[in-house]
Amino acid sequence: MSPTDAAGGGDETIHSAATLEFRQATKRYPGQDEPAVDALSLEVPAGEICVLVGPSGCGKTTAMRMVNRMIDITEGDILLDGKSVRERPPAALRREIGYAIQQIGLFPHQTIAENIGTVPRLLGWPKERIRSRVDELLELVSLDPHETRDRYPAQLSGGQRQRVGVARALAVDPPLMLMDEPFGAIDPINRERLQNEFLRLQREIRKTIVFVTHDIDEAIKMGDRIAVLQTGGRLAQYAPPAELLMYPAGKFVEDFVGADRALKRLALQRVRDIDLWKVAQIRVGEPVSEARAKLRDADISIALLVDEGGRPTGWLSDEGLAGERAKEALRSRAEPVIDLDDVLRDALANLLVAETRYAPVVDAEGRVVGVLSLEVIGHFLQEAPAESRTGAELVEEPE
Amino acid sequence: MTFDLIAQLQTRERTGAGCVAENGFCPDWIADNLDRYVDPFWQHVYLTVVSVTIGFAIAFTLAVIAHRRRWLVAPVAAFTGALYTIPSVAFFFLLQPLTGRGNTTALIALVSYTLLIIFRNVITGLAAVPDEAKDAARGMGLTERQLLWRIEMPLALPEILAGLRIASTTTVGLAALAFFAGAGGLGAVLEEQAFFRSNVVVAGGLAILLAAALDLIILAAQRALTPWRRAAA
After folding, report:
1. Is the pTM for the entire model greater than 0.95?
2. Does residue A40 sit in the same domain as residue A138?
3. In angstroms, what separates the C-alpha of A151 from chain B's closest C-alpha?
4. For residue B149, which residues of chain A lie inside 8 Å, CB to CB?
5. Angle, vertex CA A203, rays to CA A151 and CA A390, nearest 5
6. What spatial distance separates the first Cα and last Cα of chain B, rounded to whole Å?
7. Is A164 strand, coil or helix?
8. Angle (nearest 5°) at CA B43 between B37 and B47
9. By residue range, what is the domain housing residue A321?
10. Is residue B204 within 8 Å of residue B116, measured between CB atoms?
């Protein structure tokens, strides 16, 4: 059962995802010259993750908190599914918007089940429905319901608490989620894991999400779109990750995304997304004349010996093509072998570690489909981001 | 010499009157006279429980009001603090022209002494509730009232009950002076024969027992009401 089905069983109208629009939204604190958020305008399509990123004091958290009226807008408006948030009573509005913060804010005196059931209780769900929803959510965030539900927050690890925080925010299947540095307080290894888990979850639940972070790498990984804010709450750029890295709008964004922005683009692409070199695939016993014809047609002047199943054996030496038929005479083994689904950054790392300039690429069955070389990667880095993927699409499926 | 002493001791043991005359600790006399402590004891319980209950009701209400209006905390603390500094005997006498002798006068004074302790502990307990829990609660759509009663109050409970324990122990002690206001209690019996050791031991011992019992009852309530604190350990 999908979470949508479970939560949609009641009387409340539950949408799976909402559109969000900031329209000249401004927050001005009395007695301060500069606004905290300055005429912010951006649209988040339903089901996408919009990351608000920027240095501290740029107003990213303020902008997020304006959405559920934790901070009230002074000018402009924010529209949720076309309806102004200013027209809604704050408490009712907030119950329809998932809310997860860095410090998590679990209630220490309530069990995990009670914590997760907070908003369902506010909405008056029957006990039985809350119970089954809690178990379902715990499973969704990879926690064992039997072991977890009756524990108190202090009895869980930081990573487990963070998962409970996300489960609690998802409790009533809200069409919009606000997440303020939700993985900020977690150690790097667990953060990476939680990010991947969350992206996998998002692929399933397809919520509209406003995600605040100060970490550009996290922004690139998590975001379908990234809004870079600069001090004074001004929007510096709003673009998909690849575009942001390729065409930073001005010095501020360029500095903020970092001097290694070209390398960061490698993290956004899989090997299958780029044009590989064509390679002559030769089998033992194949007539050399045919082999030579294949070589002329290839992008690389060395032939690749493959076995019956098309799997790479090694790079053929001149001697291998000396006689009538191709012999198994190798100049080197075919290492490393790159997977078609590898992220480009990892593939490049493999090449560098093996101290080689090129390597065969295989598909899921292990069959050779082409060759990846440093030249191919270099060529990609000079190209415009035609159809680069977003972080969510790059997270691998669990084994 | 030694024989004399033993003979004397034997005499005392046989006749309670001799023990009383010697102003000793006399189990026989205590056993015979236990009745005279029953009413004063219950009067003491009454004074303590009623004044702590009323004091709690007033101080708790003040704290809840001041919790969301922080500017009220300082004046309320100053006022209850001033009450706290009035010497108790003086308080019992000062009130008599207005409220006469009896329970009313005693209760007014005893209630006054509980206010500062309970008020401060409720305020401190509420202030110690983690900001992130409050932020999460508001962010999920709890109203201010729901936030107070479902999140802040349960989390402040250990501190509140700690205040109640101090208040009740203090009140048991102060109620021993309530006889100055004509309200009886264990202090009254104690004062009747203030130089008779057996009397002092029984009256004083009952007061100590009462303080300890109330303390244990509140402690037990605290443990029963805050299972999450044990789980954390």
Report:
1. no
2. yes
3. 8
4. none
5. 125
6. 63
7. helix
8. 140
9. 271-382
10. no
